[in-house]
Amino acid sequence: MAVTAPSSATLPSAAASRTGAAAVTALLLLLVAGLALVDIAQGTAAVGASEVWKAFTGQADPADASVVVASRLPRMTAGLLVGAVLGLAGAALQAVSRNVLASPDTLSVNAGSYLALGLVSASGLSLPLLASSGVAFAGGLAAAAVVLGLSGLGAGTVRLVLAGSALTLGLTAVTEGLLLLFPRETEGLYTWNQGSISQNGFDGVLQMAPIALLGLVGLLLVSRKVDALALGDDAARGLGVPVRTTRVTAVALAALLSAAAVTLAGPIGFVGLCAPALVRPLVRRFRAYSRARAALPIAGLAGAALVLGSDVLLRAVIPADTAVAVPTGVVTSLVGAVFLIVMATRVRDTAGAAAVDKLRIRSRAVFLTTTTVLVVGLVGVMIAAVLLGDSKLLLGDVMNWAQGNAGRTVSFVLDTRVPRVLAALLAGAALALAGTLVQAVTRNPLAEPATLGVSGGAAFGAVLLVTSVPLAGSWGVAGAAFAGAAVSSLIVFGLAARGGFQQNRLVLVGFGVATGSAALISLLIVLTDPFNATKALTWLSGSTYGRTMPDVLPLAAVLAVGVAAAFARRTELDLVSLDEDTPRLLGLSLGRGRLGFLALSVLLSATAVAAAGTIGFVGLVAPHAARALVGRQHARVVPVAVLLGAVLVCMADLLGRTVIAPAQLGAGLMTAVIGTPYFLYLLVRSRRQS
Fold first, then answer.
1. How large is the average pLDDT for residues 662-689?
2. How far is Cα 305 from Cα 25, in angstroms, rounded to an integer?
3. Domain 8-346 has what CATH class?
4. Which candidate in 66, 161, 197, 465 could, as Cys together with 480 as Cys, close a disulfide (CB 3.0–4.6 Å)?
5. What is the pTM assigned to this prediction?
6. CATH 1.10.1040.10: does it fit domain 364-674?
7. Of 260-269, 344-353, 447-456, 579-588, minimum mean pLDDT range
């Protein structure tokens, strides 16, 4: 939250400002107190407001008093503490970065803490709470340092969020891989990652309270220097403020506060983003709040109100016995996703346009050579994928199976393995083609189905069907995935079209939709039974496990149509990818063509997600690599990108099945590990060029 003071002409008098600020502070305190009282009265046990009052006055039944003291009071206190420290952390990060979208979530602090704790859990170590907080602090601080280093402080509101969101995707993918590899050691870690303030006694709150107090005191001590940063780096240096030291100190203190919250309740999403935004109008209205020393505590109060309000709302809307299983962080993540989308449509993208590939002209010989090498590579990867796995086969076994002469064991292995290989190949090709179409239409090299939220919407639709109708067939899952992808794409492309498909902002809206979809998916997984939850988690990792030929048929049909349409409209793709004016001058209907290509990309993404789960970054990497290899003509880019996508996902699936056999990792986890660094590299390159 940039705490720049308004001009003196618009400021009220100092006395009026102090009076108004005191009144607002009192109202916030009353709101938080009221929410706290309501939160204490909510729960599964039949202990209402009167029983709570009797427990406070010592007149309650011992059983009722035990419920209040051992469960509800700790829950309420944890909500207060977690909300306050996240609000403080978000306000501090926004102040030192002069970026209204900076928060522990968008700077990947929570994802870094999640990975650090996941590594400790997977190793089998059992750490006390304070030691766990130290591990979370180290992981969160390291992630924040990477994001700030890549994006550059003050280099652009959107760029910082793009870097943080991409790193979050990669770190979360690694952590989810640990959950699948070490299910016993990491039991409960997924639910914990959704963020819940439920506590069993006051031990955790009492241990984290000193850390929170230390962070608050530290931020108040550097608040004057933080105020100077709002004037600009040069002005702050002129006032004798050590700019770099102040930023590092404030970020470290914010990471410490976030680590305390993560250790106590898991990642409670987007409180650090929304709380400072809620008090920002007060900063502009009351001069008393224009200084960080006053603005930081008010952001803490707003954060406490957000967390407690979310918990109260959750328990008021959902039956008490069900609400116990739903983490509070799911509600705050949904609120934060909506807030992120709204902010994305309003903030000015100071980062400039994303880097656009330079026009490259490659000879026909280069194209033919590249295509030949890729075809040979694809055949080699496909053969290796069919032969290798938990059971190794020979080419002769495959030939006998194809002729119907194989033994029972070989037939069983190939009947299950061949559909997996085909699903990986076709899903990679479909996602690569979808990414090619989206990047051409939006002229945005950072766009692809996963970063635009289309894959997330498709995943939500499919998971909704998988968890509610476990026996649903492949065509039903494909239809549900398409419905989810269609809704998410309407939101993303509809909002982006109003702003002229501005490049980075389009991706930011997509990240907001993806975040909301992820929160809804988490809600479904938490509420469903353990069998369906494990099935959904495995499917979400981008696994081709259990795929059959009927699962592959919808994807094969859609991919064939997509390739034919893209090749037939290759000239129009070339023109649309240039600029807004050229297609119109040549008599092309830009709006109709753009809508058709986007609809085709949504259909490709949905069927790929239905067949192989969520696989990210393929639609980003494959088109970029194709343009680098054969130039920008889509008659060449389309086949090369399709081949690259197929090779990439098939290779990822093969590695996931064989490297740590008999354990397996989904192809989506492998591609996320590959794609995240590449996405960050593109951000750095675009920053240098702009």
1. 73
2. 12
3. mainly alpha
4. 465
5. 0.75
6. no
7. 344-353
